[in-house]
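G., before I forget:
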Amino acid sequence: MRATFMYGPGDVRVENAPDPVLRQPTDAIVRIVRACICGSDLHPYHNIPASEQGTPMGHEFLGVVEELGSDVSGLRRGDLVVAPFAWADNTCDFCREGLHTSCRHGGFWAAGGIGGGQAEAIRVPQAQGTLVKLPVGEDSGLLPSLLTLSDVYGTGYHAAKMAKVNARTTVTVIGDGAVGLMAVLSAKRLGAERIILMGRHKDRTDLGRDFGATDVVAERGEEGIAKVRELTGGDGTHTVLEAVGYMNAYEMAVGVVRPGGVISRVGVPQYEDAPIGFGSLFGPNITLNGGPAPVRAYMDELLPDVLDGTVEPGRVFDRTIGLDEVPDGYRAMNNREALKVLVRP
Amino acid sequence: MRATFMYGPGDVRVENAPDPVLRQPTDAIVRIVRACICGSDLHPYHNIPASEQGTPMGHEFLGVVEELGSDVSGLRRGDLVVAPFAWADNTCDFCREGLHTSCRHGGFWAAGGIGGGQAEAIRVPQAQGTLVKLPVGEDSGLLPSLLTLSDVYGTGYHAAKMAKVNARTTVTVIGDGAVGLMAVLSAKRLGAERIILMGRHKDRTDLGRDFGATDVVAERGEEGIAKVRELTGGDGTHTVLEAVGYMNAYEMAVGVVRPGGVISRVGVPQYEDAPIGFGSLFGPNITLNGGPAPVRAYMDELLPDVLDGTVEPGRVFDRTIGLDEVPDGYRAMNNREALKVLVRP
């Protein structure tokens, strides 16, 4: 099969690779119908160490079940399924608590001998717990929206849920990438009436307005903080959904959060140490939470609105390419020419 | 009157000072009946910049109302009252949300022209919102326990509340100072069945066992982390109540918290930057919260159990002194000869 590997910063290649095979009775083999490139794939695109063997890429996909291990029940060959960006057994205590990203028998794609989703096919460990059947056909126009359940929609939703967004909470979303826009959509779905989107790409923030943003702040840093405070009578917002991961985004989050409020992070932090002392989080009793989203936990909840068209998260895809064009897709996203790239292997 | 001032590290003096007078119609003057020295007073005791004029000290007191401004209602001269360590109007939006430490018209003792509690008398701003009447006399044996409502009991309770401690959550309390012991008592009160106390002073951890600790870990650092993990099947505890404030305590908190768990800090951080990235908080979806406790918000809830003797938080006081002995009291607490020192002006 053809599959995507990254060999170093900016060095993405689509190459021939062995077809995946069942290794455990809990595995399935899925032929990938749609995949995509994630904003978080741009972090290794900037700083992955160069390697001889390359790293498989991609953690978002939906596809058709081709083979099933003997211990997998509830799925059949030919089923169209979507996978969360972390595979999980869906039965351990962490999964039962809704924290599938800490599953005792789970893990992440493109690591530890598991392939990536930017490929023609993939071996799915813990298939019964990982895969969710989709009641549509391979030709459905809903596939882009359904694919967002794999990561960005569930991740934006995680940010909003962890922040306890509701009708009484004002919201700032930091970042107008796909996850930021999904955080806007999620905040709106949870009833927020005031959603300030911080982003400076007009085509993206316009989509953010469609998804529910009531205000857009294009300024960044101290200027951006001042603007959000001006919009909120000086107080900042009850919740801040941080969907970027860089230190300046964290600093903006601290700057715009209201005393007693919540900063919920879903952008993968590109830093380890950051201010959390009296002058930042402690003094005003700020809560900091978030992390890799257990999107599997949210799929059942989010699926119906996607199926009936109430929400259209698939609108974040603004370019569609074939598998061999994936290197171009990374370039386009890195140059901000594309918001999010859909891949049809 | 006599009052306590700090002039530099280790330099505490009790001196003559002008008697406090009403300045605003919302003020009261309180004659102090009991005060105490706080673990957090030891931070300036170590590192306060030397000054000519000195800094008033003390933020925990109960006493008798001597004078009332014209705008204060609900209180009378002669009432015995307790004050929270932050004064507040108890009516603004933050106070109504239970975040009195961020009151729009509030502040802290011993700052901005307000005196400290280690004194014979004090001017209380926003007296109507700040002071809570106590239904006992000046000679009541309950005064030590009632005084803990001023800070340490409410602060330990804040840690446990913010961490959402309940019967299903395992708890680690870091620190065997008065606040740590009050965090143990609070976790027990909220139903926790497994409370691991990290501390290495046997007399204090013995009191911690009386308050509800089920396990004591005397080891610190990596060794302490390993011990707590051993006690919890490798997972750590759902909640960690950090009642110290030093970086090594924060690092232990990160080391012993279970994925998806909460670190609630009430020890005043003696650092600004700390690890919060993928390898510490983000990856396992840890929540970090806490801050200066809005103890005023908890007084009504905690008072009945203190009055009827269900809990005896006053047991944290193991030495009683007069006002002129306050410098000795600081020395005793700093040398760990006393857990918490009660002052009878």
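Chain A touches chain B through 34 residues (CB under 8 Å). Chain A has a mean pLDDT of 97.

More on Monday.
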